[in-house]
């Protein structure tokens, strides 16, 4: 089936029937279900092996659809107007339309309008808000192509819509806008951009504050995430690279690498954080599958998209 509108119609019908769909977005691919159908949402948790205490993000086609499931504040309205469609998830008080399973029982819900024509067309065709976490097995590397989704979740989905490689490549920024704006997860929209729009400082949650915002039964449980199968260690930018048999290297700009480092991925030779984010997860997957016994990654400058990249690298290394 190559007619995109027929594919979208089929995917929308599957969603209305309570099935799961692989959905491209500008951040990563999502595993989507009807957010208003508790049974369909439970199938997401089952397919991913995701623990029930990790809440899902609800994807909408516009702000009006968001305000049917979440109560906006003045800040939320401003951010939705300026940043949507785009890689910003707003955590807001939830309305009763959203079942408990979506929010892990929290009284807030994360909502976002994705900036991808296929995602928007799918949400509109289904006529539903879509709950969608990243379309990977829980704790593993997020998918940035349709093939990545099929590798891990082919049996769980009715269809995977193929939107090509994701433009941004890391997940959305998750923001709690009130009472004072705080980033719960750095991602595709930068803190700098949020501060410029809001005209006030935006904090970034540390590990403890992030855990406190979720219904986590045991703090620290989610320390390992976005993880390759082989062990990953992280080195600071500017520190020397370790050398050894069977190591694979994930480098920021390709500097200072050991002579003869064979298994190697460079995120951005020209030092472009957007290019690095776009290629990050695919590079990790290639190194994971290259036969090395372990991977060494290098942190990137901790500004703009670098916050989100470093967050993913730290959690892939099991450092929270
Ligand atoms: P994923 O869709 O796999 O990128 O994960 C969604 C993430 O969004 C969760 O792991 C939380 O970090 C965050 N999130 C979603 N809903 C909420 C909420 N109601 N409160 C706080 N964080 C949330
Ligand atoms: Mg995820």
What's the CATH H-level superfamily name of the largest domain?
DHBP synthase
Total beta strand runs: 14
The coarse silhouette is: globular
**Hetero groups bound?**
adenosine monophosphate, magnesium ion
* CATH architectural category of the largest domain: Alpha-Beta Complex
Question: Helical residue percent?
Answer: 25-40%
What can you see in these coordinates?
The chain is of the alpha/beta class and 320 residues long. It folds into two domains: 211 residues, DHBP synthase; 85 residues, Threonylcarbamoyl-AMP synthase, C-terminal domain (Rossmann fold), CATH 3.40.50. A ten-stranded mixed sheet has the order 7-1-2-6-3-5-4-8-9-10, with helices on both faces. Strands 11-14-12-13 form a four-stranded parallel sheet, with helices on one face. β8 and β9 form a beta hairpin. α1 crosses α6. The protein is globular and about 60 Å long. The protein binds adenosine monophosphate (AMP) and magnesium ion (MG). The site of magnesium ion has 3 residues, from loops.
């Amino acid at each position: 089936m190559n007619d995109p509108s027929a594919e979208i119609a089929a995917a929308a019908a599957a969603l209305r029937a309570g099935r799961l769909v692989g959905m491209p977005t500008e951040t990563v691919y999502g595993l989507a279900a009807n957010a208003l159908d508790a049974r369909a949402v439970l199938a997401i948790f089952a397919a991913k092996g995701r623990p029930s205490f990790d809440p899902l993000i609800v994807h909408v086609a516009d702000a009006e659809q968001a305000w049917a499931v979440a109560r906006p504040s003045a800040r939320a309205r401003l951010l939705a107007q300026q940043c949507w469609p785009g890689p910003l998830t707003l955590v807001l008080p939830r309305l009763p339309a959203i079942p408990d399973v979506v929010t892990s029982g929290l009284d807030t819900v994360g909502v976002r309008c994705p900036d991808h024509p296929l995602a928007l067309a799918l949400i509109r065709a289904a006529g539903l808000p879509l709950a969608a976490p990243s379309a990977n097995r829980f704790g593993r590397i997020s998918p940035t192509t349709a093939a990545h989704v099929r590798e891990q979740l082919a049996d769980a989905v009715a269809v995977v819509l193929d939107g090509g490689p994701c433009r941004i490549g890391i997940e959305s920024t998750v923001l709690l806008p009130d009472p004072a704006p705080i980033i719960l997860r750095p991602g595709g929209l930068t803190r700098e951009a949020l501060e410029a729009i809001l005209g006030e400082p935006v904090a970034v949650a540390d590990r403890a504050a992030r855990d406190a915002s979720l219904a986590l039964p045991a703090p620290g449980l989610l320390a390992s995430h976005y993880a390759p199968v082989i062990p990953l260690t992280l080195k600071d930018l500017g520190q020397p690279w370790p050398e050894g048999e069977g190591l694979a290297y994930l480098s920021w700009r390709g500097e200072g690498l050991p002579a003869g480092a064979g298994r190697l991925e460079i995120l951005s030779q020209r030092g472009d954080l957007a290019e690095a984010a776009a290629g990050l997860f695919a590079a990790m997957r290639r190194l994971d599958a290259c036969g090395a016994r372990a991977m060494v990654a290098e942190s990137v400058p901790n500004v703009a998209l670098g916050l989100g990249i470093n967050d993913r690298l730290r959690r892939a290394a099991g450092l929270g």
